[in-house]
Design goal:
Elements lengths: L3 H10 L16 E3 L5 E3 L7 E7 L4 H17 L4 E8 L4 H10 L6 E4 L15 E5 L5 E6 L4 H12 L1
Length: 159
Amino acid sequence: MLSRRLFYTLFLLCLCGLPLSALAEPVDFELQGLDGKTYRLSDYRGKWVLVNYWATWCPPCREELPELEVFHANHKDKDAVVLGIAMERIKKDRLQKFVDDQFLSYPILMMKPVASTELGKVPGLPTSYLVNPQGELAARQVGPVTLEDLEAFINQGKQ
């Protein structure tokens, strides 16, 4: 297992393709949720937001879902939330069944597959962006994230 210091270094180095100027300015997007509501990233200012691009057909995405759910449940009423963005062409009822079967309580937003989003490039799935409480990009991770990684990164950001 990677040491925490090495993880942070790698996590920050994974910002490849993300201009440093983007880190200093608030970012935003607006997408429809599986529940029919419109979600804006800016609605969550004051909290850390993990924006997780994923797909139902992606094994690493499916592996990280339980950890994202625990992270969201532990933080949603305090200091952080998860927004899952299903980046695939899938019927809404099929996606809803998958979400229900996985017991996901965090908002699931829908988006067709694209190479780049308002937050930056999505070179593969899963890709997660961490947005700080000021609405600025703090990090990007291509590949799965763990509950331990998220907790450690946010705790370090609070110091």
